[in-house]
Amino acid sequence: MNILITGGAGFIGSNFIIYWLKKYARDNIINLDALTYAGNLANLNSVANLPNYRFIKGNICNSRLVSNIIRDIDIIVHFAAESHVDRSITDPGIFLETNIYGTHLLLKAALKNKIKRFHHISTDEVFGSLLLKDKNKFNEKTPYHPRSPYAASKAAADHLVLSFCHTYGLPVTITNCSNNYGPFQHPEKLIPLTITNIIENIKVPLYGDGKNIRDWLYVEDHCRAIELVLKEGRVGETYCVGGLLKDVSNLAVIKMIFRLLQGNENLLTFVPDRPGHDRKYAIDWSKIKRELGWQPRYSLEACLVKTVNWYKNNRSWWQSLKNRQFQAYFKKQYPDL
Ligand SMILES: NC(=O)c1ccc[n+]([C@@H]2O[C@H](COP(=O)([O-])OP(=O)(O)OC[C@H]3O[C@@H](n4cnc5c(N)ncnc54)[C@H](O)[C@@H]3O)[C@@H](O)[C@H]2O)c1
To answer: Which residues are catalytic?
Structure first.
């Protein structure tokens, strides 16, 4: 099988490529990635020399390039996106371009080439925000109510993907997943930022009162969910994917990391809240469990240990990302630190 992965040099895409090639050694993978600040070929060192893996540097918004690449492709797994909410608040334009327009171009190319499956990677953020006291969770029937430019761009992309299925018969599936963590996640995101700042003994920012709740999923569990949807998922369907059964606040996650690293808790610094900050996400993943037998295998406690150890053992990987450009971004994002 020939698979096109978009955004495969990013966090989840690279984990997925490594996962897939280990399991399906006879499949061919093409990884199309523009290598924005978030793309990093070092994530793929372990597969870079395999004969059935090929990297192409390019933008999904380049329709001529996409049409050339897509000719012999059976399946597209579409990860490429601008993915950081904070950056979408500062500069929404690029989010609309990549996440909406780029997805639309890929869909058109997929249709023209009679692709057997277009799988779109989406997020639980399209559903908006729950209240801290809410007992209900997001599921596949929850109306969309995106509240950040990032979430709005992903919501628009989801609608486009489903519209190509209903209008033109393109065989699509979507997964709406909660927050991932694990190896190769860019240090701008909450968990790696906390780990790496503690290791470097610099201040750890936390938005607002830290009571915001996220549903955390270890990235390998997400890769397994995508695999199952590709193999056994029903065309035209969306599947919610999440990791936790109990609520865990951002503050609690950060405190767990401080304990694991025996870090100095005085580094923890509350900073003014993110504008429009969603209070709570919680995901009901009973549909994918019922239909495909998926459930998370890994606990947050066990996998935070694994993740912290990975960052401890791969210092050069993240230190190269915390470069001058990153420092400038960090200063602008957290001027009070
Ligand atoms: N990280 C999470 O917690 C999470 C949760 C749910 C869903 N998602 C979704 O999963 C996908 C992957 O997320 P991630 O965390 O790995 O993101 P990431 O930011 O780590 O990686 C995105 C990748 O896409 C590439 N890219 C960006 N614009 C491109 C373009 N125009 N053309 C080609 N490549 C481009 C980047 O170079 C990068 O390699 C995204 O669609 C995101 O919305 C992420």
So the answer is: 124-125, 150
Q: Does ligand 1 have an atom closer than 6 angstroms to the CB of 139?
A: no
pLDDT by residue (tens digit) across 103-146?
A: 999 999 999 999 999 999 999 999 999 999 999 999 999 999 99
Query: Which helix H or strand E contains 33, and what residues bound it?
Result: strand 28-33
- The alpha carbon of 262 and the centre of ligand 1 are apart by a number of angstroms equal to 31
The answer to whether the CB of 215 is under 6 A from ligand 1 is: no
Domains identified in the chain and CATH numbers: 2-181+217-241 (3.40.50.720), 190-213+245-276+299-328 (3.90.25.10)
The pLDDT-based confidence of 244 (bands split at 50, 70, 90) is confident
Q: How far apart are the first and last CA of the chain?
A: 50
Check residue 73 and give its pLDDT. 98
Nearest-angstrom CA–CA distance, 99 and 7:
11
- Ligand 1 pocket residue status of 38, Cβ below 6 Å: yes
Please give the number of the atom of ligand 1 that sits closest to the Cα of 40.
39
For residue 302, count CB atoms less than 10 angstroms from its CB and return exposed for 0-12, middle for 13-18, buried for 19 or more: exposed
Q: Mean pLDDT, to the nearest integer, of 186-214?
A: 98
Read off the pTM.
0.98
Q: In whole angstroms, what separates CA 42 from the centre of its chain?
A: 18
